[in-house]
Amino acid sequence: MNLFKDAGHLFRFAGLFVIAFIAFLVIRGYVVPKSFGKYGHYRAAAIDEIAALPIKYAGHQACETCHTDIATVKGKGMHAHVNCEACHGALAAHANDPASVQPVKPDTAVLCVRCHSASAARPKNFPQIDAAEHSNGVPCETCHNPHSPAIDAGGAK
Amino acid sequence: MNISRRHLLILLPTAAVAWKSVLAGTPEESPNYKMTEHWWGMLIDIPKCIGCGNCVRACATENNVPEGHFRTWVEQYHVTDWNLTNPEVISPDGGKEGFPAVKEDPNGKYFFVPKLCNHCADSPCTQVCPVGATFITPDGVVLVDPKYCLGCAYCVQACPYGCRYIHPEKRVADKCTLCYHRITKGLTTACCENCPTGARQLVDLKNPNDPIHEFLRTHSVQILKPQMATGAKVFYNGLDGSVR
Amino acid sequence: MSGVEGYMYPNEITLFWSVLIVLYPYITGLVAGAFILASLERIFRVEAVKPTYRLALLTALAFLLDAPLPLQLHLGHPERSPEMYFTPHSTSAMAMFGYVYLWYLMAVLVFEIWLDYRRDIVLKSQQTRGLLRLVYKIMTLGSTNISERALAIDEKAGWIVTLIGIPSAFLLHGYVGFIFGSIKANPWWSSPLMPVVFIFSAMVSGIAGVMLLYMALTKMRGQTIDMRCVDTIAMYMFYIFIIDFSLEMLDLVHRIYEADESFRSLNFMVHTKLFFSQIVVQILLGTLLPLILLFLTQVVKMSEKARKRIYTFSGIMILISVFAMRWNVVIGGQLFSKSFLGYTTYKMTLATREGLLAAIALTILPFLFLWVLLKLLPPWDHEKAHAPAAGD
What we know:
Order of helices and strands of chain C: EHHHHHHHHHHHHHEHH
Largest sheet of chain A: none
Shape of chain A: elongated
Distance between the termini of chain C: 71 Å
Structural class of chain C: mainly alpha
Oligomer: heterotrimer
Radius of gyration of chain C: 22 Å
Helix content of chain A: 40-55%
Shape of chain C: globular
């Protein structure tokens, strides 16, 4: 009894801890997101939020839905596996609203050399040219159809 | 306009339906995507990479990657036969605008190595996150929750591959999402979609029909820094021993 | 891309852990070290250091209050930091920080100081007036019981708290070392010795800090410095510093001998980018010089004045050395590429959130805390006033 009286102040200090702990548990109950821990130690709703981000590149399937003529030509040529937006850029906006968003025609002088300018670092079997020597400034599409570039395969203009 | 849906529907029915719903502005109505049915990764075929930088540009466009930081980048290696373990590596602006042309080196070789988050199954970055703001999804993609991240950068330090950075405006950790917003709708990633040579291919290890299984059986495939035991899921074909 | 030599992964060029993250382990180290000094008297019965007991506790508290501030400033979203308490990730060394910090602050330091000062607090709550009286009244928690029995219970409880406090101080700082030591991606950090080295360097820096404070404050108050006390502290500082230095050298020798894949890159870094901060400041000036001087005080008979000068100089060099060690760990660990093919440069900003001015402010701040604590709870009252306990 006497001990309890003389140690009373210790219980007061301990009481502060208990109060703080209860307050912590109450606040925690409110602030931890509802979906936290659904699949693991994270907010499950974040997965859906990231999955709902907007798409910029429509994907070649969307292009081919309308541009079947180009898809047919391209499908037979050397660029069969080069997808549309690799050259034409991100066009989900165009696929979304074909009438009002018009793609800009790429400049072949910049575009073609990105892949085809010669460098010893590129794979040996990959077609490469020294632009100045190869065409002497004449635009690529003068001779090559970008959708089916091989000249002897009937792709020449 | 010559609309022929038949061709498309035969090729990739899920993609078609998904895109239809994307066009309609209701991506949530895309075909029921089940996380438990997928286990995503990527295959990188080094002999096919031409260092054009298309993947870096496409990634930056698709994901609004801040200038000077990279969710994917391309490195050019120069390895000389007398110094195999000390390669000369460059990646000007992450290879975004390609690489300067190099001349043949009779005593060495050149090649390109595209890099991205390895979406490790035992990722050191998710391990160290103090609050659970980065995690691996049930379908095997390592993501950052930008609404929960403190921006302490501990995960940046823990990634052995240098794939993470702190987003300068959002002030949270940022990294490759493997285009999670695309692959859950049946599309491929922006980098794979735009790779002209097929050097990058999205793979689904849980899909028995994915060509990756045949590829892994018939090729010598390696992951980056296997000694780190991260369970990396980006597989490299034709990876040189000097690559780090 | 200036400041880059060789090849860095493009995301590695800027450092994401700044000078504030250097400051943080330095400050927690001072806390742990000061507390260990206090426990020397309490647990290990080293009576000679008694004049520094209360000062050491208040110093520890002042620096502990400052410790989370550099972290908060560094965070991209400080407002989200409570998440560490609400959803701590069990596999993260950093997640432990919040809990260890609170435990150490409240259950160990504040409780121990409260127990030790309770008699003074109760007396002051009766002697002072106005706002100050209210402050003391709150600090009594409404209990004015300072009977002999109650004080005896406090003494016993305080002893137990200190006993728990020693492993807690080790935990507080050992985990800081673990944060770095457990990163397998970074060979400069990844070492099981890291927590141990952090603890021992923390002890040395904390002891040096309190010793300097004691000498300075005693001089400022016009009192004479208790040489028996300072001699004892310097002796402990010397021996612990030897252990610390041996551990660091063990780590270094091990790295040099093993010479794994990272060695060439790290070796080059130590000889170039870190040459000044590591070889010159940390090892030569900060460790070997004070070690030699302290060794001389142990074996050669010297005048009081000479000893005082050596202790002051060594104390300052030790504080600089330990800061350099934190710098070399935190900044050094980010200067080389994880490809081991290149190096970047740390560009410290001046007036930004993580700049030099913020770091200086956060270094001064604990002294302001200490000043308030010294005013509120003067550690030297009991020396002179041994008046009989009033009020029961």
